[in-house]
Write a structure and sequence with these properties.
Length: 466
């Protein structure tokens, strides 16, 4: 199908388009240079156009969420897909998948309509404990990790706990410190694993990281409790690291955390094979300064190293994104958030496109997403936003896009979802050949056969190797 979008203003950092009025031509699901004789023409005059949103960090398929759904405390897969689509999003990344839960996570992701998906693999460091104690094993691990990532159909490697702990007292001397772990992974080559994802906690800021530029730090805002931690994040950014923000909406939210970070009512606990259970709770964020510092970081200056996130649903549900965008764009919308004074800077539409499209796509390695250039996937969101839009109207506009096109198919037309059966894709980082033998050592503590932990295509949507 050939679609022409006329008269809209494009906001695309990847192609240096800051509100320029241009036509977009779509053919066979791809943005092309041009053609004559469109099958459908969309009049986008007076509207803002961005690439489809890419959420780099949102818990939508974490193991245990079905338990929470059964208590009517989390969205169904269909609701997830529809809410994201109405907000103009076309891709979501699940940040918490382990080897043992990989098939489950991908099956859950494949149940979400409309959205393309991907997932970070959380490596259980207990499995690699004997290897990460010494740099002499670095080359061996550099060969093993890409195999695990490819086999579990993950798009990146995440370190949730930068230490290895044993509950058994007799093994206490075998613990691996965070310092040793961070030093080991800092030395890894960026060829096979471009950037290691690090779960950010206040404890992490007490450690020294030799090569911050090799890491992406998740939801940093939730871990910044003081000025010292804030300066640590700035140091990471200056050293070439990337971060997603972990912003807040200050409401009661479902929280997925370790027991130490639990807030409010606890109603679920899941053992994922890590040193501590994962706890599901619901309540307002604890009374510390993290929300203030998170917004201070976001407003200091949007950069090529910063992506939007709330650690959804922990700091804010993904449904709250439009409200937070309105806070970032207009100082008057956030005037009463904190007693302390935030920077008075305001995001432009180009800044919003940068942190919700361009930068997340870069972090995930999605070269054909997050921009509106020729050859890109035709994932396009059109919003009723222009220079005359009032600050009080921004939230509603971001919550309810006028049009959404996904892979060249119209999903939202005139603010209504008209097609939620559009083809979905699962993006993952692959290697060839996929030889499992070198990686079997990482399941030496497990009762599972290694090959049974790998993800078959029956659990995924259409697979796309990056």
């Amino acid at each position: 199908m050939k679609i022409k979008i006329e008269g809209g203003r494009l906001y695309d950092p990847g192609n240096n388009l800051d509100g320029e009025e241009r036509d977009i031509f779509i053919e066979d699901g791809i943005i092309v240079e041009g053609f004559s004789g469109a099958d459908k023409t969309i009049d986008a005059s007076g509207k803002a156009i961005m690439a489809g949103g890419v959420d780099v960090h949102s818990h939508v398929a974490t193991y245990g969420l079905n338990l929470i759904r059964g208590m009517n405390r989390f969205y169904s897969p269909r609701e997830i897909g529809h809410i994201y689509a109405k907000m103009g999003y076309t891709h979501v990344n699940e940040p918490f998948m382990t080897q043992v839960t990989a098939n489950y996570v991908h099956h859950e992701l494949s149940s979400i309509p409309i959205l393309d998906t991907s997932a970070f693999l959380v490596l259980n460091l207990r499995d690699a404990e004997t290897k990460i104690k010494s740099a002499k094993h670095l080359e061996e691990v550099e060969k093993i990790i890409p195999i695990i990532i490819a086999g579990t159909k993950a798009i990146g490697l995440k370190i949730y706990e930068p230490f290895v702990k044993y509950a058994e007292r007799k093994y206490i001397l075998r613990n691996v410190t965070a310092k040793k772990t961070l030093s080991f992974f800092s030395g890894m080559s960026r060829e096979s694993i471009p950037r290691i994802i690090m779960h950010t906690s206040p404890e992490l800021f007490g450690e020294e990281i030799e090569n911050p530029g090799g890491f992406h730090f998740s939801h940093v805002g939730s871990a910044i409790n003081n000025e010292e931690a804030y300066q640590k994040v700035l140091h990471y950014l200056n050293a070439g690291a990337t971060v997603d923000l972990g912003l807040f909406d200050l409401e009661q939210n479902l929280r997925i955390s370790n027991p130490k970070q639990t807030v409010g009512e606890v109603f679920g606990r899941v053992d994922m094979g890590l040193s501590e259970d994962i706890v599901f709770s619901k309540g307002k964020v604890s009374e510390n300064e993290a929300p203030f510092f998170a917004f201070k970081l976001a407003l200091s200056q949007p950069s090529s190293h910063i992506s939007f996130s709330t650690d959804s649903p922990a700091n804010a549900s993904f449904e709250a994104y439009p409200k937070i965008f309105s806070w970032l764009m207009k100082a008057e919308n956030r005037a009463n958030l904190f007693d302390k004074e935030l920077p008075d800077s305001e995001y432009s539409l180009l800044d919003i496109a940068r942190i919700t499209r361009h930068n997340p796509a870069y972090i995930l390695g999605l070269k054909n997403k997050g921009h509106l250039g020729v050859g890109a996937e035709a994932d396009i969101a059109i919003y009723d936003i222009n220079e005359d839009t009032k600050p009080s109207e921004l939230e509603a506009c971001f919550k309810d896009c006028a049009w959404l096109i996904k892979s060249g198919c119209i999903v939202v037309e005139d603010h209504r979802i008209v097609n939620d059966q559009v083809e979905k894709k699962t993006y993952y980082r692959g290697v060839e050949p996929l030889d499992y033998e070198p990686a079997k050592i990482l399941t030496s503590y497990s009762t599972f056969r290694f090959e049974n932990l790998m993800v078959d295509e029956v659990f995924t949507a259409k697979e796309v190797k990056v």
